[in-house]
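Hi all, long-time lurker, first post. I run a small reading group and we've been trying to get comfortable going from sequence to structure in the token notation. Rather than ask abstract questions, I figured I'd post a concrete chain and ask someone more experienced to write out its structure so we can walk through it together at our next meeting. Sequence below, copied exactly:
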Amino acid sequence: MKRWLTPALLPALLAAVLAPGIAGAVSAAQRGGDGIAEAHRPIVIGHRGAAGYRPEHTIASYQLAIEMGADFIEPDLVSTKDHVLVARHENDITGTTDVADHPEFADRKTTKVVDGVSVTGWFTEDFTLAELRTLRAKERLPDVRPQNTAFDGLERIPTFQEVIDLAKRFDVGIYPETKHPTYFRGIGLPLEEPLLATLHANGLDRPDAKVFIQSFEVGNLKRLHGETKVPLIQLLDDHGRPFDFTQSGDPRTYADLATPAGLAEIATYARGIGPNKNLIVPRDSSNHLQQPTSLVRDAHRAGLLVHPFTFRNENTFLPADFRQGNPASPEFLRARGDSPAEFRLFFGLGVDGLFTDDSDTAVATREEMFGNG
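-- Answer (accepted) --
Happy to help. Here is the structure in token form:
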């Protein structure tokens, strides 16, 4: 397969896309007048906080992302047994907490089917909040981010309210995701009702509040559209389909939702999309970048914001075009590559914001391109 992007072509590419890309980002941000996106530059969303530097979904991680200049922090929401929303990437907390080191919870280990996948471990819905408070967070990717293990055991699992309190203190936005909404509703612990109640209690259920709600499923966003004025974001992966489609027998995939017809439907209930970045700039089988798709342009034509995920600094996550260092080194995949080039590419293509584990790099690159806001 022919490589599209080479080091020699990168400067020319950026020069070619920069001016129209910025214009696209500005016009998209100016549409709607909802007070969320700044008209002159894309937003930076601290993905699980500053997960490149601290164990994800901890107050320390969120606070560092804020200190690095993130405009929004992103808590993934799951439920406890007593129906309190807490921030974890998954309801399976085996890999992100020290629960396995607690003999008093040994009998809680079990196997469940979550979104059609069999998972063995410990799950938030089997613990009360008080019980979860006895656990401590740990780094989810110790092989990639061994330096983050220095913070293992220091932070507890935060509640959604605690994340809101932190965001309010620093005047930044929140970008919660409902995780496995069909699964949680099916076990009698729906996420949407306590989410909306918490936003209401904090005065954040307004269209001009610094809040987005996101989901990989469609049905819960359509329900939320009739229950809140907070802008909604439809997440789109680069493979598979929404689990509620699987449950209902809807044959459409995320690829179908990313077509102009799919985007037009999304625009009836959501303010934007959060696509896997590979839907914008695909990679070939050798991990090299290919030509950009029309997704950003198509989404903007449908009146939708575009907030792709997930941007990370380490070589292991970067396309081959932006990896740096000696591939023979045992540290190569952990080493930081030319992630600013990836940020420049996507900012230049006109995205309205992006999710990143490394807000400092995203903010520095944005300031280089758009100025200090």
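A couple of things your group might point at:
The longest strand covers residues 43-47.
Confidence is low (pLDDT under 50) at residues 16-39.
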